[in-house]
Amino acid sequence: MRAEFCLGIIGAGQLGRAIAQGLLSSQFIAPEQLWISSRSLRSDNALSLADSQKVHRTIRNQDLIEHCDMVIVAVPPHLSSTLAINAADTDCLIISVMAGVTLAQLQQLSNNRRVVRAMSSPAAEKGLAYSPWFASEAITDTDRLAVRRVFEAIGQTDEVFDEAQIDQFTALIGPVPGFVAYYADCMVQYAVNNGIEAPIAERAVRQLFHASGVLLAESEASPKAHVDAMVDYNGTTAAGLKSMQASPLSASINDGLKAAFDKAREIG
Length: 268
Ligand SMILES: NC(=O)c1ccc[n+]([C@@H]2O[C@H](COP(=O)([O-])OP(=O)(O)OC[C@H]3O[C@@H](n4cnc5c(N)ncnc54)[C@H](OP(=O)(O)O)[C@@H]3O)[C@@H](O)[C@H]2O)c1
Description:
Layout: E1 7-10, H1 14-25, E2 34-37, E3 56-58, H2 61-67, E4 70-73, E5 93-96, H3 103-110, E6 115-118, E7 129-135, H4 141-153, E8 155-159, H5 164-173, H6 176-193, H7 198-218, H8 223-233, H9 236-246, H10 249-267
Parallel strand pairs: 1-2, 1-4, 2-3, 4-5, 5-6, 7-8
Antiparallel strand pairs: 6-7
Helix pairs in contact: 5-10, 6-7, 8-9
Residues 10-16, 37-40, 42, 45, 61, 74-77, 79, 82-83, 97-99, 119-122, 174 line the site of NADP nicotinamide-adenine-dinucleotide phosphate.
């Protein structure tokens, strides 16, 4: 471990930048402790970060392995073979958030057995990511603590003990904002079809989803307990819920998640 903890992020795209921004905003690290590499250092990527002048930037990924205690790999899966890193005989802990790239592939790419395979999302920028992770056998208790702390700084996290679950989470974490947007759009369309002006319908649905999401996230009751309580109350919500429960909606959601899972496997 260096005198000052340094963290590197390989890939300054949508996810890499969001994680970097989230770690800086939560003050998990100072800009001087952050290293970012990408192929081009294009200004529309890394340069828009706050405090960007102090962040170390390079196009040489191996610089991060040499200068950092931990490196998060966030390049597109099909470009993982272009990483050109060698973490053999280093203390650098490698964490991948690449969809579909297995732990064994990651060990081969980094030439190190001490690796972690994770999933996360651009919500990291606002400290709202959910980042499950699966560790190789070579990971120490100190590594585990470090991984947990990093992911807690950008949201919530769990260690999982079956690598296949990371593929399942790839299908849940990535697509769900799109699924929620689809459901919200269905509601906007319903409102518009029933005479509400589109901008008003959209503002209402955004606020309703925001409030419902926050309330559900902060409540101790499970989603099922919420549904059951509403059905028991037997009001307008119950009427809507009973109609939805009798429809094939649940099966459609299942099919959508399964299709996303199959695609995630295909990417790998
Ligand atoms: N975006 C999401 O919502 C999301 C969610 C979950 C997981 N992920 C995973 O996160 C990874 C990145 O996704 P993204 O959406 O952030 O991709 P992206 O926006 O396309 O950005 C990719 C970044 O990787 C850099 N890069 C590519 N090859 C590189 C190499 N050999 N060395 C260094 N940098 C390299 C690119 O640099 P240049 O621009 O300079 O070429 C770019 O900065 C993927 O594996 C994806 O599966 C993404």
